[in-house]
Amino acid sequence: MGKGLFITFEGIDGCGKSTQIELLRTFLDSKGIDNLVIREPGGTVVGEKIREILLDKKNSDMTSLAELLLFEAARAQIVEEKIKPAIDEGKVVICDRFYDSSLAYQGVARNMGTDLVNLLNNVAVSGLDPDMTFFLDISVEESLRRRNKRGDESDRIEGMGDSFLEKVRQGYLYAALYDSDRIKTIDASSSVEDIASQIANSVSERL
Ligand code: TYD
Predict the structure, then answer these.
(1) Which runs of E-coded beta strand occur in the chain?
(2) Where are the domains of the chain?
(3) 38 alpha carbon to ligand 1 midpoint, in Å?
(4) What whole-number distance in Å separates Cα of residue 6 and Cα of residue 131?
(5) Residue to mutate (ligand 1; options 15, 102, 105; most atoms within 8 A of CB)
(6) Does domain 5-206 have CATH number 3.40.50.300?
(7) b/e burial code for range 77-91 (CB count within 10 A of at least 16 → b)
(8) Given this model, what pLDDT does residue 20 score?
(9) According to the model, what pLDDT value does residue 153 have?
(10) For residues 66-78, average pLDDT
(11) pLDDT, mean over the chain
């Protein structure tokens, strides 16, 4: 079986990743293309345990370095256990967040530095880079509006506030600037259908 395709989705809370991932999955299914949808942190038994620690509001004393290393640990696990084998089987793997999240959230918003995060990202993924990344870009105001509408409770990281999210967004914009071949920035304030067709068109070109 030939090598599959590795697609990641990124963006701040409320950007519409989950909706678009579901629509892309439906699109691939309709074409009979074998796919795997997973999320970070999580996606494996070990990863889901790490996710609980990371998102638990009670862990308010977690240091930024401990946080970064836990995200990287979960990533190392999902890469070896799920992503690489699926790609080797020729599947299209769609991952809800990947190493650009660490760059934006820990590297930029938490001030851990992009050099350190890039280094740890490389160690965690051991040579596996996404073929394509969709960065669904919305303003922090729009994110807040959508979150209020949904009314969900925020987790430990989402609860960091809007100035934190603004830094995350800047982190993504920085990443997209430096890796513009891989990262496609999409204006996520457009309609769901419009975004879905942009994504389906880009993916179709690579299938
Ligand atoms: P999740 O509930 O999956 O959020 P979302 O639906 O927005 O993807 O929680 C993941 C949280 O972890 C989210 O706030 C982003 C954050 N995160 C990081 O800070 N660094 C990372 O490397 C990853 C993968 C996620």
Answers:
(1) 5-10, 35-39, 92-96, 132-137, 183-187
(2) 5-206
(3) 13
(4) 5
(5) 105
(6) yes
(7) bbbeebbbebbeeeb
(8) 98
(9) 82
(10) 98
(11) 96
